[in-house]
Design brief:
The chain is α/β, with parallel strands linked by helices. The chain is built from 34 helices and 27 strands. An eight-stranded mixed β-sheet has the order 14-20-19-18-15-16-17-27, sandwiched between helices. It has a seven-stranded mixed β-sheet with strand order 3-2-1-4-5-6-26, sandwiched between helices. The longest helix has 24 residues. It is globular, with a radius of gyration of 26 Å. The protein starts with 7 loop residues before the first strand and ends with a strand.
């Protein structure tokens, strides 16, 4: 039995956010009925349509007509889940809002995905990826990827995929809670808050630099194109002799030493000329060191470097992949994460497999996307009455998670579980998780991933430490492991060992590359996963030279762009992976609740990032490549791009003929566009895209950005002033962030009172919580006391360095 078998899902969405959420539900067994408008959904034009809509049924309904609305309400009356992506208020006007549907079906879980949320002052804006990114300041965060002052267009779906995952979190948690209460509820997720999940530690860097401006200032990775931080060398980007860009991932000291050996540069450690490596105050010395590293990479071909990687597991680099070649990654193929599905219109389509691997309950991702109006129908017989208990407890109340993970992806996935009410006991080494000290100010690096957890420091390499772990997991529901393949087995904390102690334990392995295979034991960091999954290349497009024999200056410039395309702390593949970890754990909990079997689950950073990049990597036979970003990094086409305004920039997003007609109905667009035969129809606009961009550019530069936003949003055209403020200012502002409920105030032992992100999903009935982070080992004594250890026993364990904190 698959985890969601027997559940009915009514999908009213026409956007990727809803479609990809229900695709996950379909993969794991749910019966998904997708409602399309007359003529079909615009999603059918997407390269990734066979991926987003696989395994679903299609029914055509005009929701604005009486008959179509009535039919949709009949289906909702027998559904377990409804998913919609209308702008706030639209569903109510159609008679398909939560209040009306839940009145006839109290067990309904009703999931809404919007751009900014129904309580936000920005609720009326279009929920398009580019619109949300431009408004919150995401384009500005990637400014080093471009040239000059104008922020670049960012192609990676940071907001859309993240909202897909947070909507899944809410939906799965509400279904799990329904098993107790018998009642459904309203779940709300937003694209804006989804983006906020991706930041690793910039929130707290910003906090410190605001509080102590004379002592701390943020340092960019590059300063006028010259490396300004040692992290640039550890995450080296360079090109091989035969023209392949590589992204190394050598952040730990032993990994960095391995890189220097592979580059044949270890002599520099003892050479007086290079004293202090890799910390140089002199910009010329930093630049010269980078040139030496990049020259060493350029001395070998890709094949020769792969031989180096095969010989030393501590040295590894990913090739910057793009488009369909991402699915050629050997680890994805080894893990069964690439499948072929026969689409009825497009032929055999290669695409990512299911979001996560649930071992005992395999997903079925091989059913094709439906043809228009292809469905078997649902019985509209009334659902059986449920025993109901109107609880307001948190959805994961009573769930205990034991976490063995470092850095960001898996740990932040567990943090999101605490927001939903889970108890997470984080097991750290005696020195604490390395992320706590990765920044110069204590706890800045790890504060976000420690939120809501109980930290216990244990040396698991000692028999008595391992015995404590065994006691901990005996009554746990989930163990979350983020270690590289092979490490849990060496430590005795692998799934087989721990499930022999607790057969009801859900064991989730969440690492960089999966369990074994060609890369399972390789170091994985956000930039290397960004390179492998296509994130970096999607963002920079073809704006980086890629050919053998690049000169030193061109190599440095290309490396800087590629580095900045994925290695910023505000948004990177680690964030995608963290959201996937939370989804995986919740799928496991719901599977155990519904089937009685506790599954083993494998989630990887690479597989999750590839799911996010589906729009780029899925291609049907004979299908044209998806248009990339143009040379100026403004956007893919004239109607989805950045334009100069008189005092800044705007982002324009038009996806339909109706939106085009609204645009050309506004002066001065009316005068310039309505009578121009080159733009009379979608086909002609595509053929004359460059000319259309020139005309629009001449119009937008004639007024201020706020004027354009006010004018065009008043006629429901997607156009917003491009924000150049820090993302944190957006979320923390009184007029937007606080008014929208994006932040709450907490107290931290290091930072005192401060703002943190509110839980990323809202429920109409269930509570959530938002706690501050804690220090390493702060819960050691309390947890050991729960296990029956006396104060004397705990003091002895601490004296013998078996526990700490």
């Amino acid at each position: 039995m698959r985890p969601l078998e027997g559940l009915r899902v009514l999908d009213l969405s026409q956007q990727r956010t809803g479609a990809q959420a229900t695709q996950v539900l379909a993969d794991f067994g749910a019966d998904v009925m997708w409602v399309e408008p007359p003529g079909g959904s615009g999603l059918r034009e997407s390269n990734a349509f066979p991926f987003y809509c696989r395994g679903k049924q299609s029914i055509v309904l005009d929701l604005k007509a009486t008959e179509g609305g009535d039919r949709a309400r009949e289906l909702a009356a027998v559904a377990d889940v409804v998913v919609e992506c209308f702008r706030p208020g639209v569903a109510d006007r159609l008679g398909l809002g939560y209040a009306e549907l839940s009145a006839q079906n109290p067990g309904l879980v009703y999931t809404s995905i919007s751009g900014f949320g129904r309580t936000s002052p920005l609720a009326g804006l279009k929920a398009y990826e580019g619109v949300v990114q431009a408004k919150i300041g995401a384009f500005k965060a990637f400014e080093r990827m471009g040239d000059g002052d104008r922020p670049p267009f960012v192609a990676a779906p940071w907001c859309s995929f993240s909202a897909t995952q947070t909507a899944l979190h809410g939906t799965l948690a509400a279904l799990l809670e329904r098993e107790r209460s018998g009642l459904g509820q309203w779940v709300e997720a937003t694209m804006a808050q989804g983006f906020a999940a991706l930041d690793t530690w910039d929130w707290f860097l910003d906090l410190i630099t605001q509080r102590f401006p004379d002592a701390y200032s943020q340092q960019n990775a590059f300063d006028d194109g010259i490396p300004a931080s040692p992290i640039v060398y550890m995450l080296l980007v360079a090109i091989t002799r035969d023209g392949h860009w590589l992204q190394f991932a050598q952040v730990a000291p032993h990994l960095y030493l391995g890189l220097m050996k592979a580059l044949d540069l270890t002599w520099m450690f003892t050479d007086p000329e290079w004293q202090g490596i890799p910390l140089f105050p002199d910009p010329e010395r930093r630049l010269a060191y980078m040139h030496k590293m990049q020259e060493a990479v350029a001395s070998k071909t890709l094949k020769e470097w792969q031989e180096v990687f095969d010989a030393d597991p501590d040295v590894f680099a990913e090739v910057f992949r793009q488009g369909a070649e991402v699915l050629e990654h050997p680890q994805l193929i080894h893990d069964g994460q690439v499948i072929e599905v026969m689409d009825q219109q497009r032929g055999m389509v290669r695409q990512p497999a299911a979001l996560t691997d649930i071992k005992e309950m395999e997903a079925d991702a091989t059913r094709p996307a439906p043809e228009l109006d292809q469905h078997d129908g649902w019985s509209t017989t009334a659902l059986p009455n449920r025993t109901t208990n109107r609880s307001t407890a948190m959805p994961l109340a009573g769930v205990t998670v034991v976490e063995f993970a470092t850095m960001y992806a898996a740990p932040y996935g567990a943090t999101l579980l605490t927001d939903l009410g889970a108890r997470v006991i984080k097991v750290e080494p005696l020195s604490g998780d390395p992320i706590r000290g990765i920044m110069p100010f204590p706890e800045v690096g790890g504060a976000k991933v420690m939120q809501g957890k109980e930290s216990i420091c244990i040396d698991v390499t000692k028999p008595e430490g391992l015995a404590i772990i065994h006691e901990l997991v005996r009554n746990a529901d989930v163990v979350l492991s983020g270690y590289r393949a092979g490490v849990p087995e060496r430590l005795g904390i692998d799934g087989e060992s721990l499930r022999s102690i607790n057969p009801d334990l859900i064991f989730v392995s969440a690492n960089g590359y999966g369990e074994g295979g060609p890369c399972g034991n390789r170091p994985a960091f956000a930039p290397s996963i960004g390179a492998a999954s296509g994130v970096s290349r999607a963002n920079v497009g073809m704006n980086v030279q890629q050919s053998p024999g690049l000169g030193a200056d061109d190599t440095l410039a290309g490396a800087g762009r590629l580095f900045s395309a994925s290695a910023i702390v505000q948004a990177q593949a680690d964030g995608f992976a963290a959201l996937g970890v939370t989804s995986s754990v919740l799928l496991g909990l719901l599977a155990r609740e519904r089937t009685g079997t506790a599954p083993r689950i494998a989630s990887s950073m690479l597989a999750t990032a590839v799911q996010a990049m589906a729009e780029e990597v899925v291609h049907s036979p004979g299908e044209a490549e998806r248009p990339g970003v143009a040379a100026e990094l403004r956007g893919p086409n004239a109607l989805y791009r950045i334009y100069d305004a008189r005092d800044g920039w705007v982002f324009l997003a038009i996806h339909s003929e109706k939106e085009w007609q609204r645009l050309v109905g506004v002066a001065p667009f009316l005068d310039k566009l309505s009578s121009d035969d080159r733009f009379a129809g979608l086909k002609l606009r595509r053929q004359n895209d460059s000319a259309l961009g020139e005309v629009l550019a001449g119009i937008f530069v004639s007024a201020d950005q706020d004027e354009w936003e006010a004018t065009l949003t008043s006629v429901d055209v997607g156009c917003v002033a491009l924000s150049t403020q820090r993302i944190e200012r957006f979320f923390q502002s009184e007029e937007i962030g606080r008014a929208s409920g994006y932040v709450v105030e907490v107290e931290h032992p290091t930072f005192d009172r401060h703002l943190r992100l509110a839980p990323l999903v809202r429920f109409s009935r269930s509570l959530t919580q938002a706690k501050a982070g804690g220090l390493a080992g702060s819960a050691t004594d309390d947890v050991l006391s729960e296990l029956g250890r006396s104060a004397e026993d705990i003091a002895d364990l601490r004296a013998r360095e078996i526990v700490g904190g």
